[in-house]
Amino acid sequence: MSFATLLLPDFALILLGFILMRTTHWGTAFWSGAEKLVYYVLFPALLFYATTRTPLDFSTTGKLLQVGMMTVAGGILLGWLAKPLFRPGPMIFESGVQTAFRFNSYIALAAASRLAGDKGTALMALIIGFAVPTCNAAAVYALVHKNGGLLKELARNPLLIATAAGVLFNLSGLHLPEPMDATLARLGNASIALGLIMVGAGLRLSGLHESKGIAAYFIAVKLLALPLIAYGVGRWMNLPLLQLQIAVMFGALPTASSAYVLAARMGGNGPFVAFLISAGTLLSILTLPMWLVFVS
Fold it and tell me: Does the pTM of the predicted model rise above 0.70?
């Protein structure tokens, strides 16, 4: 099976969300509620479930985590380089820089599951658990770094809370009761499908009226530079093939849909960020399979 075919069901769900959003009359309240259900309940359940079941043996996964965090660091550095390179207008850089390093966790876990089942999901969840707070801190810092907003945003992030709780539960040596384990597994399965549908529902290709150069730069950093960094560092650290594939896949992910919510809520340029998210997601239909073919 080719990597394009492997990822086809995930992108088909994104397309389904795009179509449903534009052909139904379910209203803003429905889509807003569904997004909150995924973000605050279903997806945290998946992250907690995956991290409780991930063997935290850093002798075998430590290098993968290092590669993942180096990739994130590379994205942050390249993203901030855009400010002196392009000298953008007010709130263009501050809003858009997060799209150079934040990643879509729904696509991440769906693609990892398709690639290597539960093992792939567990490896990707481990990277997500460490990358989420770093990416969120960098994104919030760019938008508001003059008050206490940074720590407040991190403290109430449901993905960070779920991952931290899962890691602590894992390290404690405890095991979930069978009914709870099965419930979390079902919630996690629902989160991937509904999350991908919500990605499609949120696609917006309008909003780019200025700063086309910096927009292209942010997208190129996310879809081309970061997977290249992950591949180079992963090969240098001699990652096993599956871990190298997971690392490169992580680098090649389109940016997080929640980047728009953060920009809009914190006074940024929401339409500009919405365009970057949408354009990057659509282009990733081509680039993500390309990178997986490259690393195989």
Answer: yes
